[in-house]
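In response to reviewer comment 3 from the previous cycle, which asked for concrete evidence that the modeling workflow produces usable outputs, we include below a single protein chain processed end to end. The sequence was submitted unchanged, and the resulting structure tokens are shown without manual editing.
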Amino acid sequence: MADSPVEQPDGTLRCKRHGLEICGKCCVDYTFMRDIIEEAKSDMPFDDADPEGDPIGGYGGKGEKVPTRRLRCVVCRKDAPHQCSRCHVTYYCGKEDQKKDWKKHKITCNKANPTEQNRPSVLAIALGEEYDVVDGIADGFFSTIEPSVDIFEAQNPTAAIKGLRHPRVPIAVLFMSSINPRAEEHVPLLTALIKYAKNERGIIIFGFGFPSFMRANHFQEVFERFGVYWKSYNYRRETFHLNNVKVPTEQGMANSSGGDEGEGEGSQALQRLLYKYGQNLPQSFSVKALQVMGVSAEDAVYVGEGDLIDKPKGRVKEKSLVSAAAAITNVGKGRIAYLGDVNSESMTELLVRAMIGLEPGSPSLDD
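The workflow returned the following structure tokens.
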């Protein structure tokens, strides 16, 4: 019985004992692989990703002090050193998984895809040892948005700051771990986050591992630096309801903030979110979350039943302070948001997509 063949760098096969493509001693003929490879080349594009981990350029080589492109195989979620050479968007761990995915991928694969420099990017920050835990929590969500945006990961303050200051400004920042607002190594990062929120019209979403790892006193102090007075509150599973604040007309939204996406009163952030994506968000769902208290009624996205004054319509008392499992508010030209869900459940993932500005129908592995 012949041994299992050995795959060569060019994809062809050789017998294990003698290194031959056609071996009389082993009674094997592996030349059929050349036909498969040629057929694949004509129909299934495949290429190596940049060996430095930065196929789009601009961030420098792979290393601890720069944000690195998240490259995961869309099939098995392992590290992906190869990319589709046609669209340069989808990544694979190897040819076998690309073959498995090709029937599905060729529907959306497009030679005329926009250049990667024009693709929006998201910066995901998870510091230190907390990264491994957070990465597992967020991996499922990342897999749904990778076809639509480039995801860059920063595991230390220096890399995160470089990502925030890069000319290719991220449309959103996911802050997924704890941060100490008094620690010498974290103060510059917090300052850079505040500057991003106030000047870049993007959004910073504090969630995923953030509610699990943050100390209560640090939690409050971080938001106070943004001029927001949210405090950590109850941690429990509860059914939360979408806060259906009055959503103005399109003309009203333009008039209220001069037509700028980020500027306006705090309530504008939630009103814009509901105006654009409210119909895609669940009216209520059960989730285990660390709630925040001291949230303006106009900034609370999901609230408990105790804060509702009109349960059928999902309304809270205006001008009041409530507790919330999710909140969003304007800070300067941008926005900050909080997600208390500690398990990254599917309904929360819909909310994150909406906050980032991705339609539920954006290309994903589940579409």
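The first strand starts at residue 6 and ends at 7. We consider this sufficient to address the reviewer's concern, and the full set will be provided in the supplementary archive.
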